[in-house]
C-alpha cells in the first residue's frame, strides 16, 4: 500500500470515490468541483493503481483577530467501505497535517460527519450556528427604520463589490475565524446560487450598513447570510423579508447570528430554532500560531503546556511575552496545561479559559486562569462558509 499525492491525471479516481462514498452530487456542479480538486493538495492511499482512500486539502485563509492566517480546508475524506477501520484515514490525516505545516498553513478547518471521530485528530468545534424557520404569518414586526433597502445584482459586479467590502469589514473587525474570501471563493458562492439575489441596507445618509444574500425557492424565502454593521441595518433587512409574507409560506435563515443574537434581536423570538455545530478547527503549528496571535497586553509572561498526540511538534511548554513566543524545556512558573483541541477553542474565542478548566479540558491554578482570561481577547468566533 502506497501513500502519495494523487496525480492530476488520476482526478477521475477521486470523483469515483467521492460519488461512491457521498452519494450526492457536488452542490456547485462539476465545474466548481473540478476547480477545487485541481487546486487542492490531494493525498491518497493506493494498492497498485487502485485508489482506496483520499483526503483533499484546499488552500484557503481566514481572519483571526484581524490577522490573515493560511488555512488548510479538509474536504472529501473518504475510503471505500471494505477498507474502513483499517487505519487508512488515520494515515492520510496525519500526513495531511505534516504537509500543511510544511506549507505554512497554521490552522485547518473541516466539516465533520462525526465530531468524536475528528477529535481524535486534534480538531474541535469552534463555532455555533442557528437556523431559523419562521412561518410567514409569524414574521416579527421589527418597527420602523430611517434608511431603505436596495436590490443589487451580482451580474454587473456592482452588487458583489458592495457586499465584499461589508463582508471584509465584518470578518476583520467583528468576528474571529471567518473566511477571507478571494475571487475564486466568491465565484464558488455564485455557482451555488447564493449571490443571485442581494438586498443592501443604506442608512438615512446613503451609507451601506448591511446586506443579505437570499433566494426565493418555490414558497420558501431562504436567507443564506446576513451581514450588518449595526442593529438598524439588521431591522431594515428583516423588514424587507417581511414584505414577502404574502409570497411565501415560510422563511428559512442561516448565518444570521447565534441563538443569543436571535434572542436579543427579535421582539418575539417564538419560532423554530435549530442549533448547529457544523465546523471544527485545529491549530497545525502551535509555535507559529502563537507568534502571530494578537494577545491582549500583559505585564507578565504566560506559560502554556500543550498536549497533541497526533502532531508531536506541538507538544511541550511555550513561553509567551506579548508577541514573543519560544519553546522552553521546562519552567517553574505557573502553567496552563491544555489539549490541542481546547487550545483552538480558547484562542478562537469559542470558549473562555475558566470554562475549559471547569470542563477539565485544561488545568491551571485560579491565578493562572485569571491571567489567561486577561490575555485572550473577547471576540466571538464564527464561520459562514462550507466546503
UniProtKB/TrEMBL annotation:
One of its GO terms (molecular function) is aminoglycoside N-acetyltransferase activity. Keywords: Transferase. Residues 1-146 form the N-acetyltransferase domain. Pfam families: Acetyltransf_17 (PF17668), Acetyltransf_9 (PF13527), SCP2_2 (PF13530). One of its GO terms (biological process) is aminoglycoside antibiotic catabolic process. PANTHER family: N-ACETYLTRANSFERASE EIS. This is Putative acetyltransferase. It comes from Listeria rocourtiae.
Amino acid at each position: 500500500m502506497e501513500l502519495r499525492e494523487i496525480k492530476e491525471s488520476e482526478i477521475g479516481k477521486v470523483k469515483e470515490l467521492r460519488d461512491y462514498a457521498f452519494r450526492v452530487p457536488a452542490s456547485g456542479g462539476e465545474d466548481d468541483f473540478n476547480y477545487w480538486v485541481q487546486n487542492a493538495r490531494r493525498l491518497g492511499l493506493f494498492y497498485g493503481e487502485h485508489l482506496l482512500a483520499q483526503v483533499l486539502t484546499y488552500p484557503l485563509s481566514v481572519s483571526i483577530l484581524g490577522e490573515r492566517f493560511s488555512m488548510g480546508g479538509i474536504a472529501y475524506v473518504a475510503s471505500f467501505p471494505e477498507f474502513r477501520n483499517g487505519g487508512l484515514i488515520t494515515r492520510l490525516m496525519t500526513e495531511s497535517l505534516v504537509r500543511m505545516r510544511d506549507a505554512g498553513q497554521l490552522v485547518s478547518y473541516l466539516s465533520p460527519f462525526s465530531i468524536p471521530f475528528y477529535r481524535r485528530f486534534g480538531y474541535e468545534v469552534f463555532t455555533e450556528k442557528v437556523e431559523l424557520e419562521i412561518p410567514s404569518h409569524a414574521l416579527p414586526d421589527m418597527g420602523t427604520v430611517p434608511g431603505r433597502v436596495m436590490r443589487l445584482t451580482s451580474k454587473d459586479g456592482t452588487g458583489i463589490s458592495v457586499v465584499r467590502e461589508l463582508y471584509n469589514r465584518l470578518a476583520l473587525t467583528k468576528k474571529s475565524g471567518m473566511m477571507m474570501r478571494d475571487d475564486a471563493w466568491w465565484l464558488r458562492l455564485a455557482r451555488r446560487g447564493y449571490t443571485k439575489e442581494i438586498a443592501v441596507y443604506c442608512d438615512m445618509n446613503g451609507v451601506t450598513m448591511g446586506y443579505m444574500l437570499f433566494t426565493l425557492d418555490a414558497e420558501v424565502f431562504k436567507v443564506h447570510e446576513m451581514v450588518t454593521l449595526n442593529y438598524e441595518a439588521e431591522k431594515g433587512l428583516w423588514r424587507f423579508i417581511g414584505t414577502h409574507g404574502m409570497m411565501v409560506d415560510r422563511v428559512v435563515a442561516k448565518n444570521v447570528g447565534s441563538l443569543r443574537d436571535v434572542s436579543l434581536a427579535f421582539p418575539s423570538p417564538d419560532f423554530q430554532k435549530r442549533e448547529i455545530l457544523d465546523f471544527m478547527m485545529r491549530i497545525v503549528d502551535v509555535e507559529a500560531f502563537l507568534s502571530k496571535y494578537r494577545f491582549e497586553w500583559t505585564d507578565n509572561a504566560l506559560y502554556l503546556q500543550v498536549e497533541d498526540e497526533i502532531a508531536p511538534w506541538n507538544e511541550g511548554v511555550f513561553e509567551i511575552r506579548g508577541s514573543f513566543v519560544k519553546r522552553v524545556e521546562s519552567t517553574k512558573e505557573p502553567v496552563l496545561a491544555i489539549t490541542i483541541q481546547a487550545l483552538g477553542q480558547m484562542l478562537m474565542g469559542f470558549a473562555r479559559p475558566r470554562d475549559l478548566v471547569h470542563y477539565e479540558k485544561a488545568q491551571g491554578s485560579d491565578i493562572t486562569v485569571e491571567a489567561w482570561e486577561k490575555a485572550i481577547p473577547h471576540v466571538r468566533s464564527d464561520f459562514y462558509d462550507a466546503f
